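User: quick one, fold this
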Amino acid sequence: MHRLLTGLLLTVLSFTAHADYVLETVAEGFDFPWSITFLPDGDYLLSMRSGELRRVSTNGDISEPLANTPGTYVAGQGGYFDILIDPAFESNRLVYLSYAGGSPDANGTTIMRATLTPDGFSDEEIIFRVSPDKDTPQHYGGKMLFLADDTLLLTTGDGFEYREAAQDKFSQLGKVLRLNRDGSVPADNPFANGEQGNPYVYSYGHRNPQGLALDTRTNTIYLHEHGPKGGDELNRILPGKNYGWPAVTHGINYSGAYVSPLQEAPGVTGALTWWVPSIAPSGLAYYDASVFPDWQGDLFVGALVDRDVKHLELENGEVKNQRSLFSELGERIREVRVGPDGFIYLLTDSNQGALIRVTPAN
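Assistant:
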């Protein structure tokens, strides 16, 4: 291992409505870090969009790139996306990585499962790849989330040029998909028999979802997705529901033309909140720890455009209030996660990206 960071950057701010916090740079120098997962021994695994995985110790030691990781299509938004450990990781050492698999002419969001070794992966297995293939390097989705029953959710984007596919229940583009840990179809999926939709589809009508979080007390699933020009959304995900894109949207085309004149419609589940203009949401965390008691039950959304994190106060599952945090970093925030230690972790989005730990000031 080698250390890319020798010092700690500490910034303390006070807010009247919240406890004081400290921003601590654990490590930096990452090539567009995309996601983080937490190992039982206290280390972190980080995925880079550029196609690298690195292990980071709690004191900032960064490994060489891990071995036996999959090749990926790095273009546009393509590359490595999310990384998770298996619910039974301590006994099976399994890790799940989502990434852009394939070529410029035929690519799609892919999940590889492998065994973590001291230096990298072994027993690598592709357990899922989104169908159909697309020929665009945009709108992959790629976020994963384990539910309480140990099934795995995967978000997929509409491929940018294929937005009508989001309304096609037989396409896996523009969806939240649900699969078993081995990549098979759960028997209780909304369209498991394949007669009314693709068996993997859990919800549909999504544009480019890049945030997934779970309220473990109520098993409520939260998702955010990028709108076009305006219209980024936060949604509560329910099985079999239609979230509207592109038939219903609060945004417009980048040209200024309408995508749709409708902001609501029968049969479409409305957003909990939305952002106009766009904040470009990336990373989503539900806070259920005790370290920051005033933040319990709230959501935290990374905002690439605004270079901050949106703190959404929830009341009875609805957004009651919203404020900006951590703007003093002056960085695009790619990922927001709550660690097993109860601290909040941020990844900044640059070719010298940093892993930031948010802790109480006292």
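User: anything notable?
Assistant: The first strand starts at residue 2 and ends at 3.
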